[in-house]
Design a protein that fits this description.
Blueprint (H helix, E strand, L loop, with lengths): L7 H10 L6 E3 L2 E3 L6 E6 L4 E7 L3 H16 L8 H17 L1 H12 L3 H22 L6 E2 L6 E9 L2 E5 L5 H14 L3 E5 L6 H12 L7 E3 L4 H10 L5 E5 L2 H13 L4 E5 L5 E4 L6 H13 L11 E5 H15 L21 H16 L3 E4 L14 E4 L6 H4 L6 E7 L1 H10 L3 E2 L1 E5 L3 H10 L4 E4 L14 E2 L2 E2 L4 H6 L2 E9 L2
Parallel strand pairs: 7-8, 7-10, 8-9, 10-11, 12-13, 12-18, 13-16, 15-16, 18-19
Antiparallel strand pairs: 1-2, 3-4, 5-6, 6-22, 11-21, 14-15, 17-20
Helix pairs in contact: 2-8, 3-5, 3-7, 4-5, 5-6, 10-11
């Protein structure tokens, strides 16, 4: 029986039988924290403790970085023949697929993601990420420049060294893959710091790398709180780069840590407040409304590029809102994330639920109209009913701040010029979309939107060739794509005198 056809009872039985590691993975083995400290991971669907996990301190980070540094200095990975490294990462991708059930359960139990989403999206895309970067390993090339007759000049690309990957809780497996895969493909050694809310799939990932034939010490994982383990990794003088996805506030702190330590490279993906622009000449209103609903309510709205601002052209605004209310009110219903029929799990923690609900109250207090949702249903755990606001002004909190929950803000605009003004009036610039039949409008809007990822007549489409990252305070650097791989390398120039 395929995983996709399992019943809720079968998933619950698998969850009961699941065994998983809670210690750090360092130098090819699981180890406890040096001081023995542990912290509790809570299942947000039940509010009950799931596991006691080793809590990493600066000493544990030192140990992991030392392991990664030894492996890099020993050249066991970076000097491995490219085709051999490709084979390891290809086998790694296969093992992720083989262990789909374990990965699906680990992330569902830790952060509440519906298990159907894990099976359909997160696990296969994580495997695809490693396959894609495996295929790029022997595509990294240098160049020879034109010089005087008495010189030969060539340029090499080499790995950076030890890369620290600090990843969020909303896509624990997939975001780790987006960081770790290009870092490994480029020949670096890695220390992964998973989010404290969802550390378990990152530990399994590190273990499977060794099972795939990766040398011990090349891929390490340290659990822990951001202010301890995360800060220690970002401040570490032997770390050559930090690859971070998370909040803008913490992203700025990563830059401070880099400056305070060794001026390490930093790549940041720090969220957004993505506008979806719906012009009066859009191709099909029902299709557009469906994309709008999925763009903000999918994954509980806990998505960096969630299309949370709906900029609707005035001539279609009334009908757009009516259709959104009719379809969106029941499109995503809270339920047991281990039930394959569920498409809306809990928010990640009780404190995050309280934060999302506080934004609903602020939206009402600031004068927006709550069309539906925005309440905690009578369920155990950290659930919130998806919410839609109308009558929103772009100056309101619900239009300016990243809520990171299923809260949509509808803003009426007057044509494309007004839509662009509103869309770009944000500290963020991760993603955006525009819906129009007019090719000239589409192309000029893509040019004028201040965002790193633009969709036309769709939302959240793409593949591994697509650079993912933002403008402004959404961060710097890109995930996925060839550009991401090259960002984990540095250039070396060799000038040979022939006289």
């Amino acid at each position: 029986m395929s995983l996709a056809s399992r019943s809720a009872a079968e998933w619950h039985a698998s969850a009961q039988a699941l065994r998983f590691e809670t210690r750090h993975f360092i130098d090819g083995d699981y180890v406890d924290s040096q001081d023995g400290a542990r912290f509790t991971v809570v299942n947000p669907a039940t509010g009950k403790p799931l596991a006691e996990v080793s809590a990493g301190s600066a000493a544990d980070v030192d140990r992991a970085v030392a392991s990664a540094k030894r492996s890099f200095a020993g050249r066991v990975w970076r000097r491995m023949a490219p085709r051999d490294r490709m084979a390891v990462l290809a086998e790694f991708a296969r093992l992720i697929e083989v262990n789909a059930e374990r990965f699906a359960l680990l992330d569902t139990l830790c952060m509440g993601k519906p298990v159907a989403d894990m099976i359909a999206v997160d696990v296969p895309q994580a495997a695809r990420t490693f396959s894609y970067f495996a295929e790029l390993i022997d595509k990294i090339d240098g160049s020879v420049t034109s010089t005087a007759a008495d010189a030969f000049h060539y340029i090499l690309r080499e790995p950076l060294g030890v890369v620290g990957c600090i990843v969020p809780w909303n896509y624990p497996l997939l975001m780790a893959a987006w960081k770790v895969a290009p870092a490994l493909a480029a020949g670096n050694s890695v220390v992964l710091k998973p989010a404290e809310q969802s550390p378990l799939s990152g530990l399994l990932m590190a273990e499977l790398f060794v099972q795939a034939g990766g040398p011990p010490g090349v891929f390490n994982a340290v659990n822990g709180l951001g202010e301890t383990a995360g800060a220690a990794l970002a401040l570490h003088g032997d770390v050559a780069k930090i690859a971070f996805t998370g909040s803008t506030e913490v992203g700025k702190q990563m830059l401070v840590y880099a400056g305070r330590s060794n001026m390490k490279r930093v790549s940041l993906e720090c969220g957004g407040k993505s506008p979806q622009i719906f012009l009066a000449d859009l191709p099909d209103l029902d299709t557009a409304v469906t994309y709008a609903i999925n763009g903000i309510f999918g994954n509980m709205g806990e998505v960096c590029n969630a299309g949370s601002r709906l900029l609707v052209d005035r001539p279609i605004a009334e009908e757009f809102l009516a259709r959104f209310v009719a379809k969106g009110r029941s499109a995503y219903r809270p339920g047991d994330p281990l039930d394959p029929r569920t498409n809306l799990g809990p928010l990640v923690t009780a404190s995050h639920r309280a934060r999302v609900l506080s934004f609903v109250e602020r939206g009402k207090a600031e004068g927006a109209t709550l069309e539906f949702g925005g309440v905690a249903p009578p369920l155990p755990g950290c659930f919130v009913e998806p919410a839609l606001f109308s009558g929103v002004d772009n100056g309101m909190s619900i239009a300016r701040e990243e809520i990171f929950g299923p809260v949509a803000a509808t803003i009426v605009c007057d044509g494309i010029a007004d839509a662009l003004r509103i869309a770009n009036d944000s500290m963020y610039g991760l993603a955006a979309s525009v819906w129009t039949r007019d090719l000239n409008t589409a192309l000029s809007t893509v040019r004028d939107l201040e965002a790193g990822v633009i969709w036309v007549n769709c939302f959240d489409h793409g593949d591994m060739t697509q650079p993912f990252g933002g403008y402004k305070q959404s961060g710097q650097g890109r995930d996925k794509c060839l550009e991401s791989l090259l960002s984990y390398t540095q250039t070396k120039s060799a000038w040979i005198h022939l006289g």
